[in-house]
Design a protein that fits this description.
The chain is built from 9 helices and 18 strands. It is of the alpha+beta class. A 5-stranded antiparallel beta sheet has the order 6-7-13-11-12.
């Protein structure tokens, strides 16, 4: 079992790079949640690797924060070391067959896809409007418009607590709908970088497809501070349809509203707290279960201490 965080020891090991009591609402797309007791920005996969090795060495709990797009942080904060992943290098190798694009895990997925398109390669158009990071996309098998990371990924570079730095082929990740081995098993490993398979095309063709995807997203998904889709779609149905059919579209608790455009999106109307999101999530789950007998599973992750809200 990991020890509680030791701020004094962290200061000794990381010096001025360590920040304390950083409000994570400023680092998540939903703009809600408490503070990180210890917050450590890392600017490359090498820095990320070094930091993790130190934290494993002293047996101190940590989590990786990228874009913060699929998480809800408790108002009570996060009593672990938060590694803010700013490792964003991208490399596109068109000489290989098939062409391969590499990105560090903190790279923005949409930016990665745009860089690929500018070089005239296809294969990542589906990711043009997804706000998360490459690492988050690999971890949760992000997808849209008929494709996902399971279809695009070739190889992932990881740091494993027992095996060290190594590479895994996509087949080893046991991908399924919005999930992976990383998410299912919580294995002691961190994603450092990922390589995706590309196809020859032209900038004009790829960018036009991306424009169409972005335009469709703007029409069907609401603006404002949110976490993206709250629930996974149950087999043969859609979570948004079930929530709407349950009469909850537009329902609000505090400053959180179930979107009137798409009921699987919960919007921060201004100064919402995480507890309001949590209670609206539980209300949606209970109402859909009571009316339709369907148990909605979270696509987002709850981070921190939620005991006071249970």
């Amino acid at each position: 079992m990991a020890a509680p965080i030791n701020i004094k020891l962290l200061r000794q090991r990381f010096g001025e790079h360590l920040q304390e009591n950083v409000v994570l609402a400023n680092y998540t797309t939903v703009r809600a949640g408490g503070a990180a007791h210890a917050f450590l920005p890392v600017n490359s996969s090498a820095e990320l690797e070094d930091a993790i090795k130190i934290l494993w060495e002293v047996d101190m709990p940590f989590m990786i924060l990228g874009s913060g797009s699929n998480i809800l942080v408790s108002d009570q904060g996060v009593p672990v070391v938060v590694l803010f992943n700013r490792s964003r290098n991208i490399k596109i190798d068109g000489r290989q067959t098939p062409p391969i694009a590499w990105a560090e895990s903190g790279a923005n997925l949409a930016h990665f896809s745009r860089q690929i398109a500018r070089r005239g390669f296809a294969g990542m158009e589906w990711a043009a409007s997804i706000p998360g990071t490459v690492g988050g996309a690999v971890y949760g098998n992000a997808g849209a418009y008929g494709s996902d990371m399971a279809n695009s990924l070739v190889l992932v570079e990881i740091l494993h607590r027992s095996d060290g730095k190594t590479s895994w082929p996509v087949e080893r990740l046991d991908y399924n709908y919005r999930s992976s081995l990383f998410k299912q098993e919580h294995i002691p490993a961190v994603i450092l970088a990922a390589g995706v398979r590309l196809e020859e095309s032209t900038p004009e063709v790829v960018q036009e497809k991306m424009k169409q995807n972005i335009a469709h997203r703007l029409l069907t998904q609401p603006p404002g501070a949110s976490m993206g889709s709250i629930f996974r779609n149950p087999p043969g149905d859609h979570a948004g349809r079930l929530i709407e059919a349950a009469g909850l579209k537009g329902k609000a608790i505090g400053s959180v509203e179930i979107s009137t455009l798409h009921a699987n999106f919960f919007i921060n109307l201004g100064k919402a707290n995480a507890s309001d999101f949590y209670h609206l999530i539980r209300l949606a789950q209970k109402t859909v279960e009571d009316k339709f007998g369907v148990s909605l599973e979270l696509e987002i992750e709850l981070v921190g201490d939620w005991k006071r809200d249970n």
